[in-house]
Design a protein that fits this description.
The structure is a homotetramer.
Chain A: E1 4-6, E2 15-20, E3 23-27, E4 41-45, E5 51-56, E6 74-76, E7 83-84, E8 86-90, E9 97-103, E10 108-112, H1 119-130, E11 135-142, E12 148-154, E13 159-165, H2 173-185, H3 191-199, E14 200-205, H4 210-215, H5 240-252, E15 256-263, E16 270-272, H6 282-298, H7 321-329, E17 332-339, H8 355-372
Parallel strand pairs in A: 3-5, 13-14, 13-15, 15-17
Antiparallel strand pairs in A: 1-4, 2-3, 4-10, 5-9, 6-7, 6-10, 8-9, 11-12, 12-14, 16-17
The structure holds calcium ion (4 copies).
InterPro entries (chains A, B, C, D): Cytosolic_carboxypeptidase, Pepdidase_M14_N, Peptidase_M14
Active site (chains A, B, C, D): 337 (proton donor/acceptor)
Organism (chains A, B, C, D): Sphingopyxis fribergensis
């Protein structure tokens, strides 16, 4: 039997170049109005026992070619439990080819760059959290395609904390992190949550880029715009998603901010900060460093060795949210990066970095915040 | 606070004409390339306690203007449990206006013509059933927008039974019926299922019109085509969904067929048959009538008084699936119609006709089939 | 490693004669103050891969020696999912020996005569049903050991229907049947339930013998009394459980009654009636026969060929509940018998007769009752 | 209607002195062969709206008369969700009377000293954890009534960690803590669990006193013996439960030990250590103090101000497990005490200290252990 491949669903992205029996040659569609591509998500239908041999080609031109070496593709038979497949990368073959080989144990196999977080699940999450006692829902605005920018607010304290995710829509681990954060924050028994709800006002935007999410983009919105380069000057035409959130931040002020991301190349969880902003204050840096140190003590899944190079003094790119918020509000702001690959220091060959680990990382981040406040 | 209305999600459909505080004037978008409209599905965000007053106007031109009188809108706060809202219809106001009034008990309220069945839920269903022992998955083809026409096959017997639904995508109860049918058929303990799996080969297409479903259509596919008028001559250009299914039927043959629908106007569950086909055989009619009689004995939710007028001898419209299959295969074929309103004979003011009742009706239909075989 | 066997828990019953490696010689403890024994329930702890060889001896003296031939023991690793084990019976060895052989796939294996229904699960069921709208809870009295005789009442109609189970505590399928009956009757969507709630007043006693249940008895209460031989003259000293229920029946009257049981020897589901009662009325017999016929049409798991011999006219034993209620109230009363073995006509080598099938049988019994009323 | 009170179930304990309408005078049965009493657990059946007025008398003679002031009784309608009731204590009335007043919102209300943890739930937990990859089950011995002393072993490291609970059976929060600990330790995604499984060998005894648990005891086993005064000289006659566990500890050695308890009087979570043992080593004390400090940093539900007075040097009572293990093995051993009342520092008037909080405390204890190793 010849396998069949389909990606016509929420966040689906694959181009079928050729299918031959149980082998296929595939490529990835670019983000609309953009040259970025890296996210893939498709369904294979096949027979149990098929020796699947799937080659995703042309990856030397992908957004992060360093992302493929050491990476293993994610898969699920039931769309709930995700595991990793045997995967290898050859930079020289077919313009950069990722080869996935798997003996099918089911007739339907979903394969993705990371476990997807659909807009339907997003709406389930928002509706169910909005019903919880003490939670306020706000629609901050709409995306270019008219999807709501949903914001959930929790807590009665004075410290303004903003959590937001998925500026880069293909980094779906960021919304799993959000699901974990929300579960913890609404837990009536959790002592950190109870403490944080008394100290803080949380403003939580689980998905800042619904259009890119639904379309299976890696990095941009409907207009092909990288939202995390718009924070100095968001516009209704290019980046209404950022404009809506930044306007709401201007109303509330921002004391702490966490911008949740995935990183394609680095096999670790790490933070990126705001060291290069013009107005940098020692107390601000100190709190950031204290958070980073405490988080490293709080979870073996976080580390401080691997990460991005710091900006030189005054050289921060203020179009990014973390630097913009640090500069604009004096906030302790941070980018939280999780790997597409695995955590090098605590590897799990079966699951790799996973939705469950993303959720537990969110728990640790919130516990750490509680410790510092 | 002013309420906010959004429909930019799977099967969403509403046009916001005007919002004033907690009141809104709305209308329904037509199916693409078509004049049909009746399905609506949108989200209201508001404050608890808001006196919502929502007017959907222009309904005199809807596909089934008789569908509005005696109808109550469906709503959910958590997207799982659906209930009915206070609803009234004034045919003379605003070109036919449905008025929904509700004091909000939550900050988010989903409102729809009937409890939606999303494509994500569809894919969950297909993937999970495909993993069950004894189930074969087949992709019969793709829709105009490239979505798969999924078919699940169960059973080792010789009687060929085809179950298919949602030719008319706004009739979402039809896919709830399918979920009920599949749950029963894969139940390892159910005696009817065990008996049927031995007697029959089931071919089950839970959704024949994924494009219309996702787009929030009432009645047509991406090309504005009513699929249930294409069975005499389906084409790859207009109706590949029907072509794919009919080709597969030609391979297997069809002994029994159930085409699952919702009816906008009639407040009852009823069958429609194939009495006007040229080749009508007494045994065929007899089996159909026996099924109808037995089903009425098997569930208080089915009846035989209300329904469509029968075609005169030889006057059947062979572009419809039920008649086409009866004529083409000598099948005992039937259209199963469930109400958007409620079952007049067993009304439930809280839930009206519901997903749960649709699923239980499927159980009764399968038990009845087992009795007759 | 030597296996370890324990039965010191709810409904546990085994005597360990000898353990040698992964083999054990066992016997069954008699019901307190009685010679009846047949129910067993114990836990084996072992190593994965152990070749378990368990011999239950002395069964020629058990209550139903014909129960062992063709019987397979029930087992579970997680206490939720129950399956059958390889089992054989040798009437001549060791005074009648049942041999269970199984290669352990888990470290803990529960083995029982039938899937147990614990008193904790009973209390969960009662508490959760008692919270449902329209349900009245009554404590009808207490057992000899002080446990409550719980009764749940549902429905607003005039027809008085009594459902009661587990007079014989080792027949645990009877309480699974009850769980199925209660689930259906409280389902807000189920059309039979909605119809029955309007026509009837149900009085439901899920467990008439909690003392015997907890103690792992087959057939008697704390005093060694077979409750189903006490209905002509129940006493506070010997059978307060029956006295409590019969007194409540005297208050309400009884139109229909179902006494739910398991049968050790016959591999089928069948009814037993009241044909030998002095006051037998044709209409009463007719309704009973109509129920039996309709039930056979409604579920492939019921049949009318196998069963008990009927009593001769006037020869009914009025100490049994079915005959007593038929005589005392003119009720259409019946004993529903399910097999410990399997249903010969629809065998399932994996599960045999099971909790799930018991629950589905209850659904069919209630649907049938609705049809006849 | 007159209410009905029953306690004839797992861990039930109440004596009904008198019932008058919706009021009752009650007392608590002593532990068998002992004068200890404090645990209660009973079921009230009543009508919705009943003004329940329940007086538990004679409490001046209870084991911990200081436990009643500031205490609120626990209740549940569904046996899953537990909440606190309006409760007051008058030391001078009726020999010490706890008065519970509540307007019934359900027909069945379970009331207990703390949310119970039944032996059935215990067996579910043990069977389900024993099936997890990497878990070894051992039956260490049996209680005086023949119940198994279940031990679950996890981890491949060299550090021997013993977790054991419910020496005092009425301290049911201790087994909820165990459920939380086991859930975390078997979680394939949890980074602390993954780290701990590599460093340690866990030996986990969720319930050391099954006889007392089932019988509704506060503090002793079947023989009326306080197991936590037997560790210097456990015997098969008086304390086989301790003997079995201590023998297994002698085999494995003990590096860290947590003995989980509830405290009746002190409204806080705290540790008790081993400061008075003869062989006290500075490093041992240091690790204990480091754990206590880190735990206080890790959860707002733990504190170090309230607690027991420390023993003077050399004055430790070596019959208690914590001191015995510290002395015998040089272990870092600790008694973890949770309140029956509430955590004074983070009070929750609705739930008080709860099963959920007990489970989260276990998570924090394990995270803390991972930090220190
Ligand atoms: Ca990113
Ligand atoms: Ca239709
Ligand atoms: Ca029986
Ligand atoms: Ca204690």
């Amino acid at each position: 039997m010849t396998i069949s491949i389909n990606a016509a669903f929420d966040s689906g992205n694959i181009v079928v170049e050729n299918v031959d029996g149980t082998s296929a040659r595939l490529s990835i569609r670019k983000d609309r109005e953009s040259d970025f591509f890296q996210w893939f998500h498709f369904r294979v239908s096949c027979a149990v026992g098929d020796a699947l041999d799937l080659a995703i080609t042309g990856l030397a031109d992908s957004a992060y070619p360093d992302g493929w070496s050491g990476y293993a593709a994610c898969a699920s038979t039931d769309r709930e439990n995700w595991f990793r497949l045997d995967t290898s990368y050859d930079a020289k073959m077919g313009g950069g080819t990722l080869t996935i080989q798997h003996t099918a144990e089911s007739q339907i196999l979903y394969i993705a760059y990371f476990a997807p977080y659909s807009m339907e699940r997003h709406h389930d999450l928002v509706a169910q959290v909005a019903e919880c006692e003490g939670v306020t829902y706000r629609c901050l605005g709409t995306s270019l395609e008219g999807q709501p920018i949903d914001c959930l607010e929790i807590g009665t304290g004075d410290t303004q904390v903003w959590l937001y995710a998925r500026q880069h829509p293909g980094e779906s681990m960021a919304e799993w992190w959000m699901e974990g954060a929300l579960e913890k924050l609404i837990d009536p028994a959790d002592p950190h949550a109870r403490s944080l709800r008394a100290k803080c006002r949380f403003h939580i935007v689980p998905n800042m880029n619904p259009d890119g999410s639904r379309r299976g983009h890696l990095r941009t919105n409907f207009a092909g715009v990288n939202l995390n380069r718009e924070w100095d000057n968001p516009t209704a035409e290019r980046s209404p998603e950022v404009l809506a959130v930044r306007n709401a931040m201007d109303e509330s002020g921002v004391d702490w901010a966490m911008d949740v991301h995935g990183d394609e190349a680095i096999p670790a969880v790490f933070l990126a900060g705001f060291e290069g902003i013009p107005s940098l204050k020692p107390a601000q840096t100190e709190k950031y460093k204290a958070f980073e140190t405490a988080l490293a003590a709080n979870t073996p899944d976080f580390q401080v060795d691997l990460g991005y190079a710091e900006s030189a003094p005054g050289q921060a790119n203020l179009s990014m949210s973390t630097t913009q918020l640090a500069e604009r509000f004096g906030a302790v702001s941070m980018t939280i990066e999780m790997p597409f690959k695995d955590n090098r220091d605590l590897p799990d060959p079966v699951a790799g970095w996973s939705p469950e680990r993303s959720k537990l990382l969110a728990h640790a981040c919130l516990a750490t915040l509680d410790q510092l406040l």
